[in-house]
Amino acid sequence: MSLELKNLHITTAGKEIVSGLSLTIKPGEVHAIMGPNGSGKSTLANAIMGHPKYTITKGMVMVDGKNITSLSADKKAKAGLFLSPQHPPEIPGVTMANFLRVATAAMTGKKNKILEFRKDLAEKMKNLQMDQTFATRYLNTGFSGGEKKRAEILQLAILNPKYAVLDETDSGLDVDALKIVSAGINQYKSKEHGLLIITHYNRILEYIEPDYVHVMYQGKIVQCGSKALAKEIEKKGYAHFALKS
């Protein structure tokens, strides 16, 4: 039982960005991928979820032993995979509540009991210190950067996927918002969930304890370690690891 990335090679616009990356995330584990701009982190996240801009030319994405590499994004979601993208799209005309209700029904194959769903949504919004009127706003439309990130973690909490990939969820957050978002992620953490956090900085890892930290450089993982590795990156910078790659 795991999310396995096996020897992934990923291209976009005819250029290979990720070159032979392998990683296994088991339920109960928190992995962090850190790296400088242009190292391929967001390319990796988008490709494994099925973004059409990115092509996996070699290797496989496996969820609990099932090859989901060529599946569409919705089928990957049903298989248990979730992506919080770096730049969530705005969807005017679709309220947050309706989006989550329909998405939950699509994931489970069951119709939601509206009162139970609203109660669950209200509780999880409260945990993220979100005003209840947020549920009636159009998805990400006119949201601030911090609101978009909270909306992503609200989706994580409601959809409850088995494996979650969070791409720079800490980007643009002030200290207070980072604490709230991190608390929401920590509520998701469990022995049944596997989590991959993609970030530039150590600061989110001060709130979410990683089991493993990986340094990504030029499309490859060049070093792995514990949380101490994140602190070493903060101290020495990525150039230190580039020289060792």
Summarize the topology.
Blueprint: E1 3-12, E2 15-25, E3 30-34, H1 41-49, E4 55-63, E5 66-67, H2 73-78, E6 81-84, E7 91-95, H3 96-108, H4 114-127, E8 138-139, H5 145-159, E9 163-167, H6 175-188, E10 194-199, E11 212-217, E12 220-225, H7 227-236, H8 238-244
Parallel strand pairs: 3-10, 3-11, 6-9, 9-10
Antiparallel strand pairs: 1-2, 1-4, 4-5, 7-8, 11-12
Helix pairs in contact: 3-5, 5-6
* Number of individual domains: 1
Number of helices: 8
CATH structural class? Alpha Beta
How far apart the termini lie comes to: 31 Å
And the CATH topology? Answer: Rossmann fold
Q: How many strands appear in the DSSP assignment?
A: 12
Features:
4-stranded antiparallel sheet, ABC_transporter-like_ATP-bd, 6-stranded mixed sheet, Fe-S cluster assembly ATPase SufC, 8 helices, 12 strands, AAA+_ATPase, ATP-binding, Rossmann fold, 245 residues, 29% strand, alpha/beta, ATP hydrolysis activity
